[in-house]
């Protein structure tokens, strides 16, 4: 049994390393093209920050996995740092999905009532709120080298779990509503970023939620299902690494060979949208 567990741990560890390396390359390309070569609009600002959050998460996983492979023991700060980066990406994904859904349901109202700098403010707010949402329960529960304060740990941990589950629900519900609206109710062409919003929600549902579940029930899962953490970590890396592939799949045109920049421009750039969607905003208005 110990040999089987050792084999499973080694396989998941090296798969995590491979997924992290691939995701670093993919998200780095997204940051390079979207940050420097593609005109950004209100929705692509979310995707730019999301690529940054995924890059941080995968970089942390790569570093911690390398340390674990060298020392045969996980690093002490692995879980809180990984959850911090993952939570930031989850906030950005929820904000992107919710606004994409609202802009499809109420395009005229969304375009008329949307304040300037909304995307930048929401992204900044997400980065700021993620720090206390993860670090406070991690500190109270002894994950940062401090002593455990049981009652404070329970209160902060419950708030952190509610935060993460709420963001996950917003992303999944927004993707479902957008799918139902576009396929069954709306007569307009599919809005821009429809495929990205729907694909990201499915990725979260399949690959991201196990990591949220582990953070929520860490002690119980460590006791009953020790293999759950390495498996959830691997799936979380797949969740973050697959988004550039999703952008590529949405942007490419079958039968045509195009530069990667052109594919990302089609998938992530914003121009005049069909069907009354939101037009691209100037850089100063984002």
Q: What report would you give on this structure?
A:
With 286 residues, this protein is mainly alpha-helical. It has a single domain (15-109, 124-272), classed as Up-down Bundle (Rhopdopsin 7-helix transmembrane proteins), CATH 1.20.1070. 78% of the residues lie in helices and 0% in strands. The protein has ten helices and no strands. It has helices at 2-36, 42-71, 78-105, 107-113, 118-140, 150-185, 194-216, 218-224, 228-251, 260-268. Helix 3 (78-105) packs antiparallel against helix 5 and helix 5 (118-140) packs antiparallel against helix 6. The protein is globular. Mean pLDDT is 86; it is low at 272-286.
Strand and helix layout:
Blueprint: H1 2-36, H2 42-71, H3 78-105, H4 107-113, H5 118-140, H6 150-185, H7 194-216, H8 218-224, H9 228-251, H10 260-268
Helix pairs in contact: 1-2, 1-9, 2-3, 2-5, 2-9, 3-4, 3-5, 3-6, 3-7, 5-6, 6-7, 7-9, 9-10
Domain G-protein coupled receptors family 1 profile: 26-247
InterPro entries: GPCR_Rhodpsn, GPCR_Rhodpsn_7TM, MRGPCRFAMILY
Keywords: Cell membrane, G-protein coupled receptor, Membrane, Receptor, Transducer, Transmembrane, Transmembrane helix
Reported for the largest beta sheet, the result is: none
Radius of gyration: 20 Å
Number of helices: 10
Distance between the termini: 56 Å
Helix percent reads: over 70%
CATH overall fold name: Rhopdopsin 7-helix transmembrane proteins
CATH fourth-tier homologous superfamily: Rhodopsin 7-helix transmembrane proteins
Subcellular location: Cell membrane
Organism: Galemys pyrenaicus
Pfam family, one: 7tm_1
GO molecular function, one term: G protein-coupled receptor activity
């Amino acid at each position: 049994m110990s040999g089987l567990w050792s084999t499973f741990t080694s396989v998941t560890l090296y798969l995590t390393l491979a997924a992290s390396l691939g995701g670093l390359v993919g998200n780095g390309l997204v940051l390079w093209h979207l940050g420097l070569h593609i005109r950004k609009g209100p929705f692509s600002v979310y995707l730019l920050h999301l690529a940054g959050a995924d890059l941080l998460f995968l970089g942390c996983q790569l570093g911690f996995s390398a340390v674990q492979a060298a020392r045969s023991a996980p690093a002490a700060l692995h879980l809180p740092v990984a959850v911090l980066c993952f939570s930031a990406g989850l906030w950005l994904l929820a904000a992107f999905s919710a606004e994409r859904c609202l802009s499809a349901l109420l395009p005229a109202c969304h375009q008329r009532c949307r304040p300037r700098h909304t995307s930048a403010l929401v992204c900044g707010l997400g980065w700021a709120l993620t720090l206390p949402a993860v670090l406070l329960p991690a500190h109270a529960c002894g994950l940062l080298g401090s002593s455990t304060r049981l009652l404070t740990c329970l209160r902060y941990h419950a708030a952190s779990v509610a935060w993460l589950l709420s963001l996950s629900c917003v992303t999944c519900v927004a993707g479902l509503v957008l799918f139902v609206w576009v396929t069954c109710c709306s007569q307009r062409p599919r809005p821009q970023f429809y495929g990205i919003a729907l694909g990201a929600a499915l990725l979260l549902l399949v690959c991201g939620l196990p990591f949220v579940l582990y953070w929520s029930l860490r002690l119980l899962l460590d006791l009953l299902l020790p293999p759950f953490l390495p498996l959830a970590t691997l799936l979380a890396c797949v969740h973050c690494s697959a988004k550039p592939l999703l952008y590529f799949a949405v942007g490419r045109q079958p039968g045509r060979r195009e530069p990667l920049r052109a594919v990302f421009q089609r998938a992530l750039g914003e121009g005049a949208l069909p069907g009354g969607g939101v037009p691209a905003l100037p850089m100063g208005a984002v």
